[in-house]
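On clarity, I found the account of how folds are encoded harder to follow than it need be. Since the whole study asks how a given chain folds, the encoding of that fold should be made plain. For illustration, here is how one protein appears when written out as sequence plus structure tokens:

:::
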Amino acid sequence: MSEKENKENQVKETAETKKEEKVIKEVKEETIKEPKAVEAKKESKTEVKQVEKKEDKKIEKDNNKQNKKKFEVKTTKQQNNKTGDTKKASWIAPTITILLVLVVVALLTVMIVTSSDPKKTVDGFLTNLKSGDFTKAQEFVSENKDILSDEKFDQETEALLFDKMSWKITKITKEDDKANVEIEITNKNFDTIISNCMKKLLGDFKSVLSGSSVEKNMEKYLTEELKNEQPEMKTVTKTIELVKEDKKWKVVSNDELIDSLLPGFQEAINELG
């Protein structure tokens, strides 16, 4: 091989060597750059994450604020509702009270009207007589007359007149402001009672001759007879008259009423003349 060729070969080899070195250098540089790029990417990702965290915190904070506002609004509404309910309750209670009063008044009115029924009037009248409440019984009588005004009895005797009385209303007829109540009344037989009293009075003729009051002795014997726990009873069927006064039925006080309440009393008095 000539020198010329040798030189050319050396130049080629040198050139190839330089190329290889250049390639190796570039490879090394690339190798060095890659970790830096990776680190840069990591740093970039970290920064992104931090930014995302900050954004999340900001969003969370905003949400908390919104929730807080919503809660405050809701609480305010609830308080307003409670205030409204309190106001409602403040006027509902008096309204209910007024309504109840009106209902009671209406019921009392109905009761008053109902009590004007002839049957209820007679029942009320007789019930008070039996219990010995003559003042209350007189409220059921026309013109508030005293049914025993013609008979003089003390309180003890009066209380014994009707204590065993019973009755049964059989028929009621009404015409305008008048009514008739047919009734069966069972009470002590006053015909027998008066007769027994007269026998005792005549048997005590000495006290009469001595100047003792006949009336006083008669009242004493009458009380004794009325206290009898097993008296002779008598049932009579009579008609009690009623009239309407101020929209209420009232019992008419007459001889028929006395005959109804004290069976046999008038007969005994008539016999005595």
User: Anything to note?
Assistant: The chain has two domains: 37-115, 118-272. The beta strands are 166-175, 178-188, 233-245, 248-251. The chain has nine helices and four strands.
